[in-house]
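CO-FOLDING WORKSHEET

Operator: S.A.
Ligand of interest: magnesium ion
Run index: 280
Mode: holo prediction, single chain
Checklist:
[x] sequence pasted
[x] SMILES validated
[ ] output reviewed
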Amino acid sequence: MTSVVTRPTDSYNRLPQDAKELLKNRVQTMASASSAPATQQRGVGQEQPKTPKEQSKTEPMVKLRQVTKTYGNGSQALVNVSLQIKRGDFVFLTGPSGSGKSTLLKLLYGQERPTSGEVVVNDHSLSQLQGNRLAMLRRSIGVVFQDYKLIPRRTVAENVAFVLWAQGFTRKEIYRRLWPTLKMVGLQGKARCFPDELSGGEQQRVSIARAVVSTPPLLLADEPTGNLDVDNSWQVIKILKKLNSIGITVVVTTHDEHLVRMSNHPVVQLRNGYLHHVRR
Ligand SMILES: Nc1ncnc2c1ncn2[C@@H]1O[C@H](COP(=O)(O)OP(=O)(O)O)[C@@H](O)[C@H]1O
Ligand SMILES: [Mg+2]
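OUTPUT RECEIVED:
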């Protein structure tokens, strides 16, 4: 990591195009991480009494109000979806392929806009956010994908450190965060490996490390176990549970009914774009 410098703009401009693309949507900050309370398993969508002072703490992390998403080709991905996810929750979002799971997550991190209805994340209404303010909100959201999306010609440590590097974290701070994060996902011994030297499960753990190295208050994982065998899937879920136990709100999509049955977390299901609560 000798290339780490603290001039984010120059550094960013010198990155290869693939790295820039990956960073654009995934640069993260510490913003509001400290407001996430220790985890309690709570139901999805349940209201709690609140005083004005406590309001931002008790406000749900995610609120969808009557959200409909119709793509340009007429495909109806979500229909009148209302959902609340409280801070500190761990929620499974299930449903068959094509039921709208990825679309729902894309609305949460602002990659897509709803056709109607309102999406609120971490107290911000996404429809009112543009440009820099949307980019700032995205920095408080960690995202993990089924296909890992690692930068191929960069080591494990570099893949994880880039997120902090592009934000201008000092070299000392990058090191302070990098090693505990790699250790948390069990990859401290693979820091100098390249992605193609790792198993699928290991690559997914790198992508989780990258998503959380800046301790975002919200982690979205879209089919994180989709390419993994049973053992590796469990390992990934265990890491997500561990992150949830330190206060990160976690939303995981999966069509793996077995994984869902083996856990006691709240479950919401999408079917043809309609949302149903399966387990609160
Ligand atoms: N960019 C897009 N343009 C048009 N239709 C899309 C787009 N993305 C998804 N869809 C459609 O929206 C529906 C939901 O897709 P998606 O959210 O990817 O479901 P899932 O993640 O549950 O498989 C599907 O019918 C899909 O074909
Ligand atoms: Mg999907």
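REVIEW:
The chain is about 35% helix and 20% strand.
The chain has one domain: 8-42+87-110+130-279.
[x] output reviewed
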